[in-house]
Amino acid sequence: MAVVSAVPGVLPPDDDKARAVEEMFDRIAPRYDLLNRALTFRMDVGWRRTAVATLALAPGDRVLDLACGTGDLCRTLQDAGAVPVGADFSAGMLQAARTTAPLVRADALRLPFADRSFDALTCGFALRNFTALPPVFAECARVLRPGARVALLDVGEPASPVTRAVHGVWFRRVVPFVGGLVSDRAAYRYLPASTSYLPPTPALLTMLVEAGITDVEHRRLGLGAAQLVTGRRA
Asked: Is 99 among the domain residues?
């Protein structure tokens, strides 16, 4: 993944990213869901349903929701008949979670689960918050059984120049402004800026394949405002 230089007051230095991101999510947890719904016009709910649908889950399938936050994907997985387990490194997010699924405070680089523990894995809007993606993907592959499906959601960039321009104004100007009024200004400046941590799509898919996730596919959601990457454990 490309090295991203720190942006004073927005992106933390690389060696301080984990601590800074954890503290940020602890601060914004109480109003995180409210702002997600408002700032995406509730499209995030549909994106999560789409991600879960790609897993083709059977009743009772055990699913790890990595960086589960307040449990949005856990609830969607439960609605689909799965048995989710949420893992997140932010104690504030776990405290604010609204789900009956079991939740574990854990580092994505050292998941406290045995090899081949899960039938599927989800991760919603968190890839850009990890300090490094290849070791995270390797750890995901470790805890998945062969053939298990993976669905990774994150923010995206529209392909159309016009849509991209409108999205840019909303995401990089309106989101920080509204987020600052309702929650934490520094956090909602970081969240749009953190897209720079995401590698180009071909590089992202290559990282997954090298970690043991095959049949990888990429699709845009919400006119490109979000992206969904899917695959299968080799």
From this structure: yes
Stretch among 52-56, 122-126, 164-168, 227-231 having the lowest mean pLDDT = 164-168
The torsion defined by the Cα of 14, 18, 22 and 24, in degrees rounded to 10, comes to: 0
Range of the domain at 206: 14-159+188-233
Domain-embedded: residue 175: no
Per the structure, the count of domains in the chain is 1
Mean pLDDT of 37-61: 97
Q: How far is CA 143 from CA 37, 170, 228, in A?
A: 31, 37, 21
**Residue 218 included in any domain:** yes
C-beta of residue 185 within 8 angstroms of C-beta of residue 179: yes
CB neighbour class for 62 (10 Å; exposed up to 12, middle 13-18, buried from 19):
middle
- Give Cα 33 to chain centroid, integer Å: 14
Between the alpha carbon of residue 227 and those of residues 8, 22, 90, 188, 223, the distances in Å are 28, 23, 24, 20, 9
What mean pLDDT value characterizes the chain?
A: 94
**How far apart (Å, rounded) are the C-alpha atoms in residues 187 and 33?**
14
Instruction: Determine contact, residues 62/85, Cβ cutoff 8 Å.
Output: yes
**pTM (two decimals):** 0.93
Coil, strand or helix: which one is 90?
coil
- Residue 173 in any domain: the answer is no
Distances (CA, A) of 223 to 48, 128, 182, 187, 220: 15, 20, 26, 25, 7
